[in-house]
């Protein structure tokens, strides 16, 4: 049982939760995720950790209401408990001084990107963050991202904030302008697919953090399997980050609809 | 051991019982038949298939046991249950005492009475099997009877424990190896804490074995018993992730037992295997057993295929195919590349599956899958096989019959072709020796790893075995770790 310490609405559909989890707060690194279950009949669902405070013993999750399970988490109030939470799971992001790193986050994907932006900056990289959303209200964490970024570019589909256009247009502009050593992308699968296609064309090494269907999250079931470089990999233990140019996004998009 | 057994056997009540009936009359009694739910009925429920023996049946069967001078049956039991003693207790009507005898050496008698392959263990070493060439005493049925009787009588005994010695022991995982280890260590006075990654306890007993073979309630009672003896359980805690090896040391744990299991399903790596509707047996059974996905109120989704193929011939494959039948499969099939003789599943499981209308495609092996435009599996191509020369396992090797293939329509496929050891512990612990298969290397007598404070057992060492072998490992490790502490004092 993990207690909700704070709750904030980023938008109508996006909620930030600070949850008591002292052991996870201590051991988690950028890129890690947790499995959350709400209620005795609840499903086990993975969420990437957005932040942690080891002193307070809390971790932060940013969750978008998209279905029954995320709805249940988002409806919890301060003082309520998450029935089960386990982690940190997955492999941590490989952090080093690559040079110039573009961090491209779409929608709620900006939240799990934040710890990577911070770690990349602290490792000495020049960090350019590209945040994309459908419309202005859905742009989240801009201030926090800016704190650890050398530059922040905002793209909205409707042009209500930042520049009008897709995330790929923002990234392409940077690549054409200067040498990019690494691109990291987190967001909807279809967005990551197009980011990967773009950066492949420019031969910019790219990591994508995948969020597939999972059950146990510890390698036991294989529900999360994806094809990477022609081989089957488990997102929960081999990932969640993979070489985006090797990921079979079409298969992943198909598998995400398994229970729709 | 032998002296203890002889002393027990020499007790007056045993003498009296032995003399009360001639061996000729004992061996003339036919072996009891386990009462079962009718196959037509049980295909639609999760209720346990085997109903258990009645008191009359159990006492009748117990008379068959000759209380041999040399009880070879015990040598077939990985946890060395005093088999004649518990059976003779049933014969004299002391059912609770029989259960107590089981608990002297087994942490989970109600579980073992249900899922042990007795035909390959104790019952294969029974005097009836070895010398009389008759059907063995139904040791497994009697074990289940005694354990169930105790539970239902409300007279559950909590085995006595030695005074607390204050030595903290950590156990990784809460499956059968870990529970057996924890039970033995807590009896010796150790301060035992079990760390489980999932939100429920029991490991494979919970997520793997379906309720029609092992009801969850049975697992709950056995774990409750360990709790009453003082074992502490922590769920949602992954050793190597949530807490580290160093953390355990800092917290004062002086011994660690790793029973983290074989949690990595194998796939066949054939074209189309990632289509929707194709999944590992672990995924399928975890959804149904652990997540209760068949319950309409459960948030966890599950496919209810109409034409379900399960690939493999082990107990897990039988569990999966029989589960599919219960979820409404009109055609539930086993696809196995060898013949039925080579199937690793227990005879009883194969028999139950057949009674429930499961179709067996033996000597067939899938080579590709095809799906519809949405990526859902639609059909599978099967290669027909024949048996060739024996391989390393002694079983005849299946060889493809060139060009002889058939297409089979399916809407769900469950791949049950074995599991690999879970990599979390081997990857996150230092000081262990790990094989290229990912199993942890141990001394086979003591179950001690290359790190002297760490012991391991069950599937993380064996790569894939049975509940009772895992329990045997746990017991062996507990004995060795305890001896080690005694010697270092």
How would you describe this structure to a colleague?
The complex is a heterodimer of chains A (260) and B (489). Chain A has 2 domains: 2-89, Beta Barrel (Elongation Factor Tu (Ef-tu), domain 3), CATH 2.40.30; 100-256, Nucleotide-binding domain of ferredoxin-NADP reductase (FNR) module (Rossmann fold), CATH 3.40.50. Chain A is 26% helix and 33% strand. Chain A has helices at 22-27, 68-74, 110-122, 142-147, 167-177, 189-201, 235-238, 249-256, and strands at 2-9, 14-20, 33-37, 45-48, 51-53, 58-64, 81-82, 84-89, 100-106, 126-133, 151-156, 163-164, 182-186, 206-209, 225-228, 231-234, 241-243. In chain A, the strands form 4 sheets. A 7-stranded mixed β-sheet of chain A has the order 12-11-10-9-13-14-17, with helices on both faces. In chain A, strands 5-6-2-1-7 form a 5-stranded antiparallel β-sheet. In chain A, helix 5 packs parallel to helix 6 and helix 6 runs antiparallel to helix 8. Chain B is α/β, with parallel strands linked by helices. Helix content of chain B is 37%, strand content 17%. Chain B has 20 helices and 15 strands. The longest helix of chain B is centred in the C-terminal third of the chain and has 21 residues, at 467-487. Chain B is globular and about 75 Å long. Chain B starts with a helix and ends with a helix. The relative contact order of chain B is 0.12.
């Amino acid at each position: 049982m993990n207690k909700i310490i704070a709750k904030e609405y980023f938008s109508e559909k996006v909620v930030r939760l600070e949850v008591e989890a002292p052991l996870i707060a201590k051991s988690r690194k950028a890129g890690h995720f947790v499995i959350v279950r709400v209620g005795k009949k609840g499903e086990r669902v993975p969420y990437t950790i957005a932040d942690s405070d080891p002193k307070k013993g809390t971790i932060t999750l940013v969750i978008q209401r998209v279905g029954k399970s995320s709805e249940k988490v988002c409806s919890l109030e301060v003082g309520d408990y998450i029935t089960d939470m386990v982690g940190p799971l997955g492999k941590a992001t490989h952090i080093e001084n690559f040079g110039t790193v573009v961090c491209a986050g779409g929608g709620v994907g900006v939240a799990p990107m934040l710890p990577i932006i911070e770690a990349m900056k602290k490792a000495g990289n020049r960090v350019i963050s590209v945040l994309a959303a459908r419309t202005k209200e859905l742009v989240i964490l801009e201030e926090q991202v800016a704190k650890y970024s050398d530059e922040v570019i905002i793209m909205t589909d409707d042009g209500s904030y930042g520049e009008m256009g897709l995330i790929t247009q923002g990234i392409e502009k940077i690549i054409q302008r200067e040498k990019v050593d690494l691109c990291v992308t987190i967001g909807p699968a279809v967005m990551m697919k197009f980011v990967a296609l773009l950066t492949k064309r420019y031969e910019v090494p790219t990591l994508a953090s995948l969020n597939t269907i999972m059950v146990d999250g510890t390698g036991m079931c294989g529900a999360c399997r994806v094809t990477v470089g022609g081989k089957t990999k488990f997102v929960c233990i081999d990932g969640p980050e993979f070489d985006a140019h090797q990921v079979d996004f079409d298969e992943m998009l198909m598998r995400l609809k398994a229970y729709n | 051991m032998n002296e203890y057994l002889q002393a027990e056997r020499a007790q007056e009540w045993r003498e009296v019982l032995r003399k009360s009936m001639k061996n000729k009359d004992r061996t003339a009694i036919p072996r009891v038949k386990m009462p079962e739910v009718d196959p037509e009925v049980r295909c639609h429920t999760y209720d346990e298939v085997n109903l258990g023996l009645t008191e009359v049946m159990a006492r009748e069967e117990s008379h068959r046991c000759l209380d041999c001078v040399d009880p070879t049956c015990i040598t077939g039991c990985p946890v060395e249950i005093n088999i004649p003693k518990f059976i003779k207790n049933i014969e004299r009507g002391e059912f609770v005492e029989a259960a107590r005898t089981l608990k002297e050496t087994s942490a989970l008698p109600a579980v073992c009475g249900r899922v042990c392959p007795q035909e390959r263990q104790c019952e294969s070493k029974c005097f009836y099997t070895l010398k009389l060439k008759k059907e063995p005493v139904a040791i497994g049925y009697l074990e289940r009877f005694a354990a169930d009787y105790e539970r239902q009588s409300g007279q559950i005994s909590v085995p006595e424990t030695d005074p607390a010695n204050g030595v903290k022991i950590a156990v990784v995982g809460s499956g059968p190896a870990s529970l057996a280890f924890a039970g033995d260590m807590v009896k010796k006075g150790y301060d035992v804490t079990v760390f489980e990654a999932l939100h429920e306890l029991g490991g494979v007993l919970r997520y793997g074995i379906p309720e029609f073979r092992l009801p969850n309630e049975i697992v709950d009672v056995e774990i409750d018993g360990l709790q009453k003896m003082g074992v502490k359980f922590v769920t949602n805690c992954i050793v190597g992730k949530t807490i580290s090896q160093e953390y355990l040391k800092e917290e004062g744990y002086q011994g660690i037992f790793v029973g983290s299991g074989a949690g990595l399903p194998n796939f066949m790596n054939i074209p189309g295997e990632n289509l929707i509707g194709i999944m590992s047996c672990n995924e399928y059974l975890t959804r149904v057993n652990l997540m209760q996905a068949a319950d309409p109120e459960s948030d966890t989704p599950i496919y209810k295929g109409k034409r379900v193929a399960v690939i493999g011939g082990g107990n897990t494959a039988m569990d999966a195919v029989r589960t599919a039948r219960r979820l409404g499969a009109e055609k539930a099939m086993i696809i196995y590349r060898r013949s039925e003789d080579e199937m690793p599943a227990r005879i009883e499981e194969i028999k139950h599956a057949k009674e429930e209308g499961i179709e067996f495609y033996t000597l067939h092996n899938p080579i590709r899958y095809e799906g519809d435009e949405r990526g859902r599996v639609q059909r599978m191509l099967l290669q027909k096989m024949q048996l060739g020369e024996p391989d390393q396992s002694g079983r005849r090797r299946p060889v493809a019959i060139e060009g002889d293939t058939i297409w089979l329509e399916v809407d769900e496929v469950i791949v049950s072709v074995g599991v690999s050891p879970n990599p979390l512990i081997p990857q996150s612990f230092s000081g262990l020796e790990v094989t290229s298969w990912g199993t942890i290397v141990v001394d086979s007598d003591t179950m001690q790893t290359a790190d002297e404070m760490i012991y391991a057992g069950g599937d993380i060492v064996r790569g894939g075995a049975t509940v009772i072998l895992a329990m045997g490992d746990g017991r062996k490790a507990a004995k060795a770790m305890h001896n080690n502490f005694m010697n270092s004092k």
